[in-house]
Amino acid sequence: MSQADDIAVEKQHWHWRNSMRPVRFFNMDARAALPFFILVFHARLYTLVLTIIVTLIFRFVEKRGLTFPAAMRSLRVWFIGQNRPALPSFRYRKMRDYG
What pLDDT score does 83 carry? Predict the structure, then answer.
């Protein structure tokens, strides 16, 4: 096989390389597009303001280098704190001495 044939065969599999990349819409996360679609069908001033606020939040998150799910996890850690035990305190077993 020549090198051109190898490249042609490899081009058929390039779509798998990008299958886990986040979906982008106008260079933003595609989840930021939902308020724009709502704005198209329900054009009001408060919908426009909501769309601008959501867009700015997504832009801020991306400028910090986070994806939206990673930003939600970071927000959860900020609210709850670093110490997150696996079991709630009422489910901990008490130490017993049978001796």
Answer: 67
